Amino acid sequence: MTRRGGGYLGGMDISAISGTATGLIDDALDRFVVLGYTKIGSQLRRQWWPADPAPQSMAGKRVVVTGATAGIGEAMARSFAELGATVHLLGRNEERVRRSAAKVRGTVPAAVVIEEVCDVSDLDAVRAWTVDLAARIPALHGLVHNAGALLKERGVTPQGHEVQLASHVLGPHLITERLLPLLRAAGGSSVVFMSSGGMYSSGLVDDDLEYRSGSYNGVRAYART
User: Fold this and answer.
1) What is the mean pLDDT of residues 142-169?
2) Residue 33 shares a structural domain with residue 71
3) Are 96 and 191 found together in one domain?
4) What is the pLDDT of residue 185?
5) Same domain, 13 and 124
6) Exposure on the CB side of residue 160, measured as CA atoms within 13 A
7) 190 shares a domain with 82
8) Do 142 and 195 belong together in one domain?
9) Same-domain pairing of 32 and 102
10) What percent of the chain has pLDDT over 90?
11) What letters, b where the CB count within 10 A reaches 16 and e where it falls short, cover 3-29?
């Protein structure tokens, strides 16, 4: 079978599938984890993904990406820069932030990248950083929560919260709440929470969010949060 333009699945033109159907396929791929979060999933989904935005389509806009010093976060920071956005590249390690920002600038010569240092699991640090950011910028068009942690042993933050819960849930929600005035000032903004296929490996235990009971399992804690 040949394919031109659209994709084919079992003799069916994927490009013609309705949004409802592709949503069901998306959900099925995700729940099989391996199918959804490997090249198999992206190769299938590529057939109905919208076209990439036009160059400079985010010119004049400002985006914060947390956990942007490696992997998906760094790739998103680079992609936003390629679209002309001012990117606030945030990480908890100053040297890694500096190194990642330099990589983005090297790849996208015209990039405007602002280095931000904050440990999103430390709620006091989050409060201090959001105050500082609000004093520096008039509006924020995008906020991507990508920072994550996967620990072998249970750790706690300065406020006494389990680190993964603080990194994936508490810190991001506090950042969002405190940056709402900037997001509203943009006159149209988006907040994105990154997740992981690992979440399907464990159900939510809502009466022990801090994982104080039983033997701590870092992978399970990661999945829950």
Assistant:
1) 97
2) no
3) yes
4) 98
5) no
6) 1
7) yes
8) yes
9) no
10) 70
11) eeeebeeeeeebeebeeeebeebeeeb
Residues 6+ apart with CB under 8 A from 181: 134
Total number of domains constituting the chain: 2
Cα–Cα distance for residue pair 36/31, rounded to 1 Å: 7
Nearest in space to 167 (alpha carbons), one of 134, 201, 194, 197: 194
Residue type, position 62, single letter: R
Among candidate residues 149, 139, 94, 99, the one with its CA nearest the CA of residue 116: 94
User: Is the sign of the CA dihedral 166, 170, 175, 176 positive or negative?
Assistant: positive
Query: Both tokens of residue 125?
Result: 């640090």
- Which amino acid appears at position 156 of this protein? V
**What torsion do the CA atoms of 26, 29, 30, 34 make, to the nearest 10 degrees?**
-150
Range of the domain at 13: 8-45
Write the single-letter amino acid at 93.
N
9 pLDDT above the threshold of 50: no
List the CATH number of the domain containing 190: 3.40.50.720
Query: Does a structural domain hold residue 117?
Result: yes
The per-residue DSSP string of 44-108 comes to HHTTTSPPPPPTTTTTT-EEEESS-SSHHHHHHHHHHHHTT-EEEEEES-HHHHHHHHHHHHHHS
Q: How many CB atoms lie within 10 A of CB 182?
A: 20
What are the tens digits of pLDDT across the range 167-183?
999 999 999 999 999 99
Give long-range contacts, CB 8 A cutoff, 24+ apart: 218-221. Answer: 218/150, 218/151, 218/152, 218/153, 218/154, 218/164, 219/150, 221/151, 221/154, 221/162, 221/164, 221/165
Is residue 55 situated within a structural domain? no
pTM of this structure: 0.86
Residue 184: inside a domain: yes
Quick check: is 53 in a domain? no
- With H, G, I as helix, E, B as strand and everything else as coil, classify residue 12: strand
